[in-house]
Amino acid sequence: MKTNVKILVCLILLQVFSFNLFVVDVFAVDQYLNKNFPLKELSFDGVNSFSEGLAMVSINNKIGYIDKTGKVVIEPQFDGGFAFNDGLASVCIKETNGITDGTTDETTNGSEYKYGYIDKTGKMVIKPQFQWSIKFSEGLAGVRRLNPDDGTYGKWGFIDKTGKLVIDYQFDAVGDFGDGLVGVVKNDKLLFIDKNGSVVIDPGIDAPGEKYKRGVPICFTDGIAVIEKNGKSGAIDKTGKVVINLQYDWFYGFNEGLAAVEKDGKFGFIDKTGKVIIDYQYESANNFDKGIALVEKNGKKYFIDKTGKVVMEPKMFVISYSEGLIDIGINGKFGFIDKEGKVVIEPQFDLIYDGFKDGIALASKNGKYYIITDCRLKVRLDQKYLDFDVPPTIIDGRTLVPLRKIFEELGAEIIWDGNTKTVTATKGASSIKVKINDKNAFVNDKQLKLDVPAKIINGRTLVPVRFISESLGCNVTWDQETHTVNIAK
């Protein structure tokens, strides 16, 4: 959807006290919508979305963190905080013994906030000392100090996870690192620097004004960064070359190889070369997620595939789409359908917050607020949820996952021998063989014993998830709370 924050996505300039909390009641009871979506009532004054398995909560104006079961893992003790990223979270404490090194924010009633970082045990690993701080990305975080001369807001620099200043205070605004680079503003100029602080790209774009409403990019992702100049957006590569001309009125970035863009009042989709893949025809459009995108045409909302074909026309009000589930509303009540249009959670809530994130959704009804957990079997590869035509399943206590889809995502080639019912996968010098209904598998001619033999289900070969780890050297973990297989290359 069109938004007014297309440029400031990477910058945290004025968000210190904006926690987006909502009030909940003070007792907890387990309930069930159905076996796939257990429901837990929360027991806090406020709660925010989950990130890296933890969510920020508040009790008596103090901030702490819970896990996906609702258990408090970091006691509420901080005066402010943000979500975890890269294993750390920025939190603040309020000093009430007078101001010794700077001016006082008029909203703090004579107190000063200092920011530091905690780990997931709640240990303060970087002591509170910064006027502002943003999340860690690729091992570094932007921090801002007060001007030591007059106590006014000073410049931004970057620290590492030990708290060491690795790029000196010199910037007027900073973003998050992506692909080894970060967008910064210095002397009203947009620049891209590397982790040594060296200027790698100077795109020649001014960033006038304190709020930098123009010229500040979205971070580099997959080698491309979106930039804006004179109200038009395009993209550059990591050499600074313009790879997509600055011609779009709205251009947020790519997902699954395509980007929704607006031109002359209509939305369409382009690939990373700038080629128009789906013509300009929509009043609004979201980027693709799990192979489908939500668009609006002639006042109606549809879901389309990557060819532009309509795959579903919901008969109810669509709120959002995430992690394969669609938040819908009927007669003032909200629930979820899957991308085939099947109702998976009956509309019953008064409000749903942000859809599903990391297998968790937050909702409210009848004055009470809840965590909804998606306990369907899911597979996530390097933080990307995979979509299967045959879902993962559990056989004899072991989780089996579709081999072809995962191996192809990992860059392996798959060959099926129907005579011997054998799957052969090759990636570089590695060769993997699996035979249907046989507990013996082979990796580079070395025999491995499977807990459960490979099975054919609805025409697809499924293998134990542990075999993914042993065959291609991936790290595989299991999230019991959300029934998610996490695979990291």
Low-pLDDT segments, ≥5 res: 1-32, 98-111, 208-217
Structural class: mainly beta
Ends apart, CA distance between termini? 32 Å
Estimate the strand proportion.
over 45%
Largest sheet geometry = 5 strands, antiparallel
Q: What report would you give on this structure?
A:
With 489 residues, this protein is mainly β. Among the domains are: 74 residues; 111 residues, Copper Amine Oxidase, Chain A, domain 1. It contains two helices and 49 strands. The strands form twelve sheets. It has a five-stranded antiparallel sheet with strand order 1-2-36-35-34, with no helix packed on it. A five-stranded antiparallel sheet has the order 41-42-43-44-45, covered by helices on one side. A four-stranded antiparallel sheet has the order 3-4-5-6, with no helix packed on it. β34 and β35 form a beta hairpin. The longest helix has 8 residues.
